[in-house]
Design goal:
The radius of gyration is 17 Å and the shape is globular. The protein has a 7-stranded parallel beta sheet with strand order 3-2-1-4-5-6-7, with helices on both faces. It is of the alpha/beta class. It has one domain: 3-Layer(aba) Sandwich (Rossmann fold), CATH 3.40.50.720. It starts with 12 loop residues before the first strand and ends in a 7-residue tail after the last strand. Strand 2, helix 2 and strand 3 form a beta-alpha-beta unit.
């Protein structure tokens, strides 16, 4: 296999959570362009825009509407994906939320909601992925979405910081346990991206200027900036990478 061929995902099926917009949409489009069929998951009734992008790339799209604040849909997601496409090869755990409040005022609900979707559901999605890969005897690729706050403390987002630090940790644990099954578990840590989660930061002129001043590339990231990293970690080109969290941050951590 030539080096460029090793990045192809032809014949693969990828489950992508939070596929309807933002980073999940960009990742879905990138994986599709590399040849993967996409089984998209989100809490909206449909994901028409993502479906159009995937089909324009020449691959198939199926959609499953689910609320990932609980783990109740997890088994159904994998059963439906296997029914629709016959197999699952790649799982991207992108769905997540953020709650902003001073740590001294942070509520139990703000803590629980974020931990449930960002960490608990992510773990059980990974567990279901591993069981599916082992059953298929095919190995597979797990890609979790971490954060700059997997490395840093941040401010006013205690449950988000806890969840994303946890994502980095469990990604390493899963690599340790599941590598023997041919499973690669890695994560991507996006920098400051122009998505719904950062709308409040971008609307605050001083915070936005402070953030941009620290990014060597001098701009907010876009969903398209994650596509290459996702394709790489989903493909045979990354077969010897396991348990690593790759920063896609415009140089933020280098400062």
């Amino acid at each position: 296999m030539g080096i460029l061929d090793s990045f192809r995902l032809d014949g693969k099926t990828a489950i992508v959570t939070g596929c309807s917009r933002g980073l999940g949409q960009g990742i879905s489009a990138g994986l599709a362009e590399a040849g993967a069929d996409i089984f998209g998951v989100d809490y909206f009734p449909e994901a028409a825009e993502t479906k159009t992008m995937v089909e324009k790339a020449g691959t198939r799209f199926a959609y499953f509407s689910a609320n990932l604040l609980t783990i109740e849909p997890v088994e159904k997601i994998f059963a439906q994906a296997a029914e629709d496409f016959g197999h699952v090869d790649i799982v991207v755990n992108n769905a997540g939320i953020i709650k902003r409040n001073d740590a001294v005022d942070f509520t139990e609900a703000e803590w629980d909601d974020v931990i449930n979707i960002n960490l608990k559901t992510v773990f059980f999605m990974c567990q279901a992925a591993a069981r599916q890969f082992i059953k298929q005897k095919t190995g597979g690729k797990i890609i979790n979405i971490a954060s700059m706050l997997s490395y840093q403390g941040g401010i006013r987002v205690p449950s988000y910081t806890a969840s994303k630090s946890g994502v980095k940790g469990i990604t390493m644990l899963m690599a340790n346990e599941w590598a023997k099954h041919g499973i690669n578990a890695n994560a991507i840590a996006p920098g400051y991206m122009a998505t719904d989660n950062t709308a409040a930061l971008r609307a605050d002129q001083q915070r936005s200027e402070d953030i941009l001043a620290r990014i060597p590339l001098g701009r907010w990231g876009t969903p398209e900036d994650l596509a290459g990293a996702a394709v790489f970690l989903a493909s045979a080109a990354s077969d010897y990478i396991n348990g690593f969290t790759l920063a896609v941050d415009g140089g933020w951590l280098a400062r």
